[in-house]
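Here is one chain, start to finish.
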Amino acid sequence: MKRAKNIGMFDKELIGVALKDSFIKLNPKTQLKNPVMFVVFVGAILTTILVIQDLINHSFSGFNLQITIWLWFTLLFANFAESMAEGRGKAQADSLRKLKTNSYARKLEGDKEVQVLANDLHKGDIVVCEAGDIIPLDGDVIEGIATIDESAVTGESAPVIRESGGDRSAVTGGTKVLSDKIIVSIVSDPGHSFIDRMIALVEGAKRKKTPNEIALSILLSGLTIVFLLVTVTLQPFAVYTASQSGEHVTLTLPILISLLVCLIPTTIGGLLSAIGISGMDRLMSKNVIAKSGRAVEAAGDIDVLLLDKTGTITLGNRMATEFVPTAGVNEQQLADIAQLSSLSDDTPEGRSIVVLAKEKFNIRGRELHDMHVNFIPFTAQTRMSGIDILNKEGEVIKSIRKGAAEAIKNYVESQNNVYPEDIDKAVNQISSEGSTPLVVTEDGKVVGVIRLKDIVKGGIRERFARLRKMGIKTVMITGDNPLTAAAIAAEAGVDDFIAEAKPEDKLGRIRQEQADGKLVGMIGDGTNDAPALAQADVGVAMNTGTQAAREAGNMVDLDSNPTKLIEIVETGKQLLMTRGALTTFSIANDIAKYFAIIPAVFAGVYAMGGAKGPLSVLNIMYLQSPESAVLSSVIFNALIIVALIPLALKGVTYRPEGATVVLRRNILIYGLGGVILPFIAIKAIDLLINFLHLV
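Its structure:
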């Protein structure tokens, strides 16, 4: 899929679909899933029945009709918020479906190729893919190497290399082979591919309520029951006070229902689902697929992050960065000899030596076809490579080697030459600084050392500093020796490291942190990372990694950018903050609505000699009448849901601050603000409806 399209908040097509879905969601089965809004749903039905009865009995009440209309609007606005969040996901899913084409595949049956439809393939089948072919389903490369265009999934135009036998063997259905030939083992059945799962996730079809949502729903349901009991007791109280004081209190069914709807937390009840869906949607816009809302929430609470060094903190390929000549040899001479030794070396390290020689001394590649050259390939036994230059008679006139320091030392001494002390010191110095030394010889004599460095990714130190501000501890995992690991950890700016780590060491560290009460995040891309990704509270698998890693993680980063965790954490924290802020605002609203309705309705109770009753003191908004107070509160209760939809979808702005600072700001803005705003708004609505003579 291309990078998630940034759909505008007020996209006309999106709004049109959301309006339609708002009415569809009035289905009682759908409403029953949200206890708070189900109470509003029942109340709207009861007032609707009452209005119909009034019409039949020729006792029509415009006040009752207006209450009924606004109760239905309250429901529709809540449905609209959820539909808007779902609609953004569905729009992204539509672009994913375009990738799914039932193309043909070349299935291997024994030694023969058979052309079959992609949908007829099953897990375990073997297919052949060459340049120009579309990979039919998700799979692992079991033979060959090829460049793949994954822009359909990641949005990145640069092709990537996929090869057998490593951590970059996974291929995704719907991507295109650009060069060479690979043999792929299918790892998913039709309908269960990575793209199929992405479609289901972004549509919210398999979205389950998170533990936090369930807990908040229980709290909101409890508050609803409490206010229901309070409202039910008001009618007997009104009857009793009328019998004692002789003052009649008007408490019709529409007024009681309105009071209940205004006091229960309808604002957060109506927006709760939209907040959760939009959290996953915001993560999707960052090109990260979360397999559950729970993973997004957990990301907001991460305490410790474990990262692999190779390919995560560093680029993954060691690159030549410096030529260190021995005494009597200048740097350019060493670069020239090193370049000759690397012209036939197709490894990233070999190519980087050629590039460094060209950049520093403008030493161009030379045509070896005109020379009599014998290439010496690298082997695990010799641990060196190079070339022998021959004369026309086939005699060696120049011999060049490069390789590991120990192997070269043995080679030099076998030629009855001396291994220089300055080279020994240079090798130790380079190793202690976290780099890899390659020693170069000419005709059995050492000429210098090439420094190979696994380059730390640009800007990663600053990103780790941001994680530290968020209170997240970073731990680098590497198979390097402790000296090298310490050097790279210091350069990258991580808080801790595990050297010479094995897969079980990663798993053990995660379990140890979890036993200490910490939430742990893990980023990885290899099959050996799968157990740790599965154990971690938040496991982020790189899309470039193996199928096993992608299956084990509960998130997949389509860009395969390990520092993406910062955006993931911020999205998780933003989701939690948004839910908390709007819950605070919703409950604070109830205080203002209480002061709007109760004093106005009971202002005449216990009044003596025509004076105002004692409860009239609480009518600080001086609303015109009980009816206008009730109607103003119901209108505000409906409109505030609409007003908060952009905030629910966009999320509260996140800043890397401590919990105390965030809590103080939320109480000030959404707590105090949630109390003050309704007083102003309800009074303004009261003035307007009285000016228009609506009551």
